[in-house]
Design goal:
Blueprint: E1 6-10, H1 26-38, E2 43-45, H2 54-62, E3 69-74, H3 82-93, E4 98-103, H4 112-124, E5 128-134, H5 138-143, E6 149-155, H6 164-174, E7 177-181, H7 211-229, H8 233-242, E8 248-251, H9 256-263, H10 272-286
Parallel strand pairs: 1-2, 1-8, 2-3, 3-4, 4-5, 5-6, 6-7, 7-8
Length: 301
């Protein structure tokens, strides 16, 4: 049996942004980070966009003086601004370097090559150990193949499987490491959101038109399989993500109570029949999004 992907803690949910995670509290976030570290999690992912630096500040505060893998991101602006933005992140994180620095989102209005080249210069300065691309269409990843990029971060979720196999094939061919985020579908795969949440998650395509009926079908299947295996729906959704041969999966939790059951997925496996059932419904769900979409959010970068 293949080893499941390593588990890391994502931190988007700690820093409310763009109408997501509006109910987060600083106290709960700090407790969750501490609980994750005490439970053996040593890999943490963040970004300055999460709460306008709040998530980075929380990680920096709770993990100060502790040994941990910390990755962060930057938004494309201008080559001359990359070092300045990364230094702000380092200050918030209370670190002299980060493990992986990701371009958070691409931009169709900018020449990304000199921007990523500027980020690569931070490796020589010892402020960054490796570079990655996040939310980047495979066609653009391929155009930047000659740059020192070693990580790709994409959704690894039953909520969005469009292009997943192509990314996996390319990463294997090029020797790149895949990092997956939102394995629980921003919490929508928990079974608690059959109706639109009162935040930006309610704007996601799964609540639109014909996608909604397929989304309900996916939740029903998750519920059925979870009961058959004696699991919760979030555990099953995460077990599926961890079976996708990614280097690591970023899981989100807003409290220790949400986090602890997810850590038990180390010993959970799905058989090929179960994976095929989930893949089939997830594929039909992703097909409901407009053909032009290359990301879960329909963001036009």
């Amino acid at each position: 049996m293949k080893k499941s992907s390593d588990l890391a803690l994502g931190s988007w949910q700690f820093g409310p942004s763009h109408g997501f995670w509006t109910g987060s509290t600083t106290q709960a976030s700090r407790l969750t980070i501490s609980a994750a570290y005490k439970a053996g999690i040593r890999h943490f992912d963040t970004a300055p966009a999460y709460g306008n630096g709040l998530a980075e500040q929380l990680l920096g505060s709770v993990l100060s003086g502790k040994s941990a893998i910390i990755d962060t991101k930057f938004m494309p602006k201008h080559p001359n601004l990359v070092a300045q933005d990364v230094q702000k992140s380092l200050d918030r994180l209370k670190r002299t370097s980060v493990n992986t620095l990701y371009l958070h989102w691409p931009s169709s209005s900018l020449d990304l090559r000199p921007i990523v080249e500027s980020a690569a210069g931070l490796i020589e300065q010892g402020k960054v150990q490796s570079l990655g691309l996040s939310n980047t269409p495979l066609s653009l990843v391929q155009r930047l193949h000659d740059l020192p990029i070693t990580f790709l971060q994409i959704p690894c979720s039953l909520l969005w499987t469009r292009g997943l196999e192509e990314y996996k094939e390319y990463a294997e061919k090029q020797g790149l490491s895949l990092v997956g985020y939102s394995p629980l579908g921003l919490g929508l795969l928990s079974g608690n959101h059959h109706h639109r949440p009162n935040d930006s998650r309610g704007d996601l395509y799964v609540y639109q038109d014909r996608a909604y009926s397929v989304f309900m079908e996916l939740l029903d299947l998750l519920s059925f399989l979870a009961k058959e295996k004696g699991l919760s729906m979030p555990q099953l959704a995460l077990a599926w993500a961890r079976s996708q041969d990614f280097t690591s999966i970023l899981v989100g939790a807003r409290s220790p109570q949400q986090l602890f059951p997810l850590l038990e997925t180390d010993v959970i496996s799905l058989d090929e029949g179960e994976k095929r059932l989930l893949d089939e419904v997830a594929g039909r769900l992703s097909a409901c999004a407009p053909p032009s979409w290359d990301n879960l959010f329909g963001h036009r970068w």
